[in-house]
Amino acid sequence: MGDAQDDYTHFGYESVPTADKARRVGAVFTSVASRYDVMNDLMSFGIHRLWKRFTIDLAGVTPGEVVLDVAGGTGDLTAAFARQVRADGGHSKPGLVVLADINAAMLAEGRRRLADRGVVDVPLARANVESLPFADASFDCITISFGLRNVTDKDAALRSMRRVLKPGGRLLILEFSKPLSPGFGKLYDQYSFKLLPLMGRLVAHDADSYRYLAESIRMHPDQATLKRMMEDAGLQRVQVYNLTGGIVAVHRGYRLA
Ligand code: SAM
Q1: 29 lines ligand 1 (CB under 6 A)
Q2: Among the atoms of ligand 1, which is closest to the Cα of residue 128?
């Protein structure tokens, strides 16, 4: 899967120079940043909130822990973790959540949305998940929600996230995946390739970005492939949780040593 080792890689269904993919992805998220949250609710009929809730629960973050939400965008997971890491009565040391994203427009929207939710104690970092600017073994838990699909070199991203996890720490990846039933897959195709770009055009005034979304989902590794990639990057005890018939999946793995 080392797609970025070649000169060309995929951007949705398009083949683009590897060096150009990050810029193209950047343009998508800069374009949709201000409409990102409303589009998520619309496109998923609000179900993305349940997928995120499941991931937050599975992460099992406790007071005092240090958490990284990378490709965190507008900060839905960050906001929940910020509350969970705060010192409880018996815990002496408060924890920390860092929101990181490669895109300045998404981070600006994230800062605004966190402040709206009363969360002001979260440092923001502009960072590429392929080469995270943090010391080895810094985090108890890392999450990447609907982010990995957009990354040029996914293997490098997985290695980088493992490097900054503490031994015993866990990585959770929430991402679109492969529907388990072929019949359902056909219906889902109709929805993604017809309805999504239409909604994108009407609400975000940008059909192309939502066509990219549908295409990038199809190009993303399926459940078993992503599990193998995580294991190749040195993550262990990897488990896969299919949600909504495999439309999305959560992969959780640990850095054991
Ligand atoms: N995590 C948020 C959520 O679940 O709503 C935002 C997901 S949004 C679909 C994808 C995010 O990944 C964007 O904010 C984008 O800027 C970010 N991203 C894309 N490539 C990245 C990279 N190489 N490193 C860090 N962030 C990246």
Answers
A1: yes
A2: 24
Which of these, 31, 80, 28, lies nearest to 59 by C-alpha position? 80
- CA–CA separation, 80 vs 67, rounded Å? 11
Please tell me the distance from the alpha carbon of residue 46 to that of residue 236, in angstroms, as a whole number: 32
Torsion of CA 18, 208, 223, 188, to 10 degrees: -160
Rounded-to-integer distance, Cα 158 and Cα 101, Å? 15
pTM across the whole model:
0.93
The 10s digit of each residue's pLDDT in 184-242 is 878 888 888 888 888 888 888 888 888 888 899 888 999 999 999 999 999 999 999 99
Least Cα distance to 153 among 93, 90, 233 occurs for 233
Q: Is the shortest distance between the CB of 151 and ligand 1 below 6 Å? A: yes
Could you count the other beta carbons within 10 Å of the beta carbon of residue 202? 10
